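queue> holo job accepted (S-adenosylmethionine)
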Amino acid sequence: MPSPRNALKALGLAPSRKRGQNFLRDPLLAQRLAQKTLALGNRSIVEIGPGLGALTRPLLDARAEVYAVELDRGLAEALKTWPEAETGELKVINQDILKLNLSQLGQTPFTVVGNLPYNLSTPILFWFLAQTPLAQAGVFMLQKEMAERLLAQPGQDSYGRLSVALSLWAEVKQILAAPPEAFQPKPKVHSAVVSLIPQKAPEVSLKALGHLTKAAFHARRKTLANNLFPVYGREKSLAALAQLAVDPGLRAETLAPKVFAEMAKLLVPDPDANQLSKSDG
Ligand code: SAM
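queue> job finished
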């Protein structure tokens, strides 16, 4: 494949930092990413941010049906000229992925894949969880530190809100790693690919869990008591902690995801409380 720099130049485009445009320049890595994606079972693939099509190409060559959701109009228009867009194997959707509901594309199960714009990784991961059961599997290229947060266990430095939510809703595995040189323009960070297989959701809403973990991890060095009292009140917080036999003097980072799920059933946010926002993690 031509280098991303040359391919962009030929289209009269320049990489946009704002849109997280670090294009895959390593065809072997793109090929492996496509294989790992298709190994999860579905032939219907939703690709987030196909860009110049580095990953779209091996997916199509392996006879997948690809819904390519690209926000950048110039890139989307270029993809629409591919022969597979004529024949229908490639459907190019020029839209913000966060505004798309998978049911608009059909009722067949999808695998979602993307070398994500890193500034939108958290909202895209929560978007993905909200798309189950149509979203059956996900494969995401993320900043390495972000992948570590998804995979972190209680007690580890990277353990936080994202680790709790993702591990309750999905089975998360790291499947590939990529150095900065695999991309153009070259990012400052290392990258990792994780697979997410949604599991049976816990009996608590993502919103209630997000509200609780936002409070509990608010100041990481503070105790649960100090973090929860200002949000839920002393009495309600102590009652919930006592019911779950959790010491109020512990820090949030020591509690297992399942304990947070149980606690979120007891500590319910106000109906008009904020949802998870893109900066939350
Ligand atoms: N998949 C290509 C690759 O690996 O070379 C490009 C990956 S690049 C890291 C991220 C892509 O996501 C860019 O093409 C960018 O325009 C697109 N993008 C950014 N924000 C988006 C959004 N909200 N919805 C859909 N695509 C988006």
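queue> The first helix runs from residue 4 to 11.
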